[in-house]
């Protein structure tokens, strides 16, 4: 067996023919619409506007959302979502492309799950059709992981909220039409947090890009500012004081997707390292014939196997409604450590070639940190798990 992205994927008894059909269809689309242009988009720091409509035509935008709002839900489960994350990563971007094109994956669920029917009808259909965009605004300049202590305020004034504050490191925000935003409507702590859908065309909203990033260059990342922004009260997502719960339930699928993306990135690094080791010669023989290189590759596969097995278990547990948040938090740590190890070892095997832009290993190595920090840093994930385990 020659090790590549597909052969290094362990057998998954939960995958049905329709799952593999989706993988084949999506890969074919990515090979045509993304792979030839990704380097160009990375250097330009953006992706073309028409990609949203193309993704909607394929069904990527709508996958997993209620059909009443233009989604595709019949026969769709978390395995389809995992495959989508794997294949976008295989195309050469460990989250950067998805954090722009598919950022509605974390921005739209609060609307679908907690918004009024009028708000759902206003927002979901155009977002799922690729015509409008929505982001999620949680992180603030004063802190990211300490959600219970956010400082952006929303004060009720008749049938509106007056919002003041800012959010930063917000993916997709520069072109977003709405931002599902965590605001403080009450006292200190999590019970004072609410979620509010804020249209970005309101007076008092301003945005600046964060375009000098280590990785995720094609991702549309920025800071958004609210200066006495009047937001209709009907844009409240859930009840006042329910925001912390909305945010926490939104984190679990996000962390699962991040972990799947990181495992796929590790597997792509393995594929590129194996291919290089089998072709490149040093001291009269292939790199793959040197014991030290073979051991690097074997250890990469060992760590990938462990991470895949972990994610297989957790994905099915998530589908069955029995996924432990602590176990999921530790899976994200497992995946980030595996990605970092494999990116480093693949870089060692490729040598100078991995230091030049235009290959997956170079890009994935730069994208390790954003994956290890975003959605909950390794340190926060370990602490969350410890609390879940009631230590």
Automatic annotation (TrEMBL):
Family: Belongs to the acyl-CoA dehydrogenase family.
Record lineage: Bacteria, Pseudomonadati, Pseudomonadota, Gammaproteobacteria, Cellvibrionales
Name of this chain's protein: Acyl-CoA dehydrogenase
Cofactor section: FAD
Recorded coiled-coil stretches: none
Domain Acyl-CoA dehydrogenase/oxidase N-terminal: 17-131
Keyword Oxidoreductase: yes
Domain Acyl-CoA oxidase/dehydrogenase middle: 136-229
Domain of life from the UniProt record: Bacteria
């Amino acid at each position: 067996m020659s090790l590549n992205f597909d052969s290094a994927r362990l057998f998954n008894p939960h995958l049905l023919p329709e799952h593999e059909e989706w993988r084949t269809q999506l890969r074919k689309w990515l090979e045509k619409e993304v792979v030839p242009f990704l380097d160009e988009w990375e250097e330009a720091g953006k992706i073309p506007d028409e990609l949203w409509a193309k993704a909607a035509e394929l069904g990527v935008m709508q996958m997993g959302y209620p059909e009443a709002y233009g989604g595709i839900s019949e026969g769709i489960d978390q395995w389809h979502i995992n495959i989508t994350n794997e294949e976008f990563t295989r195309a050469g971007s460990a989250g950067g492309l998805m954090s722009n094109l598919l950022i509605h994956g974390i921005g739209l669920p609060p609307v679908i799950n907690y918004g009024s029917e009028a708000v759902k009808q206003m927002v979901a259909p155009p977002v799922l059709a690729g015509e409008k965009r929505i982001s999620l605004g949680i992180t603030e300049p004063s802190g990211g992981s300490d959600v219970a202590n956010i400082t952006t305020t929303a004060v009720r004034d008749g049938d509106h909220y007056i919002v003041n504050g800012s959010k930063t490191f917000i993916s997709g925000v520069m072109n977003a039409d709405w931002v599902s935003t965590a605001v403080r409507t009450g006292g200190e702590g999590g019970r004072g947090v609410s979620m509010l859908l804020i249209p970005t065309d309101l007076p008092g909203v301003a945005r600046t890009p964060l375009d000098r990033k280590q990785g995720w260059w094609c991702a549309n990342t920025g800071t958004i500012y609210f200066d006495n922004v009047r937001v209709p009260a009907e844009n409240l997502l859930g009840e006042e004081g329910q925001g912390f719960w909305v945010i926490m339930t939104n984190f679990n699928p996000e962390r699962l997707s991040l972990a799947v993306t990181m495992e796929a990135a590790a597997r792509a690094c393995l594929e590129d390292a194996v291919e290089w080791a089998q072709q490149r010669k040093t001291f009269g023989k292939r790199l793959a014939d040197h014991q030290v290189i073979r051991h690097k590759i074997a250890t990469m596969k060992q760590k990938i196997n462990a991470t895949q097995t972990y994610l297989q278990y957790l994905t099915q547990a998530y589908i069955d409604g029995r996924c432990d948040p602590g176990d999921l938090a530790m899976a994200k740590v497992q995946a980030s450590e595996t990605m970092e190890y494999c990116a480093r070892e693949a870089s060692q095997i490729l040598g100078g070639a991995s230091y030049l832009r235009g290959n997956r290993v170079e890009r994935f190595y730069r994208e390790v940190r954003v994956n290890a920090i975003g959605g909950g840093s390794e340190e926060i994930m370990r602490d969350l798990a410890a609390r879940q385990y009631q230590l």
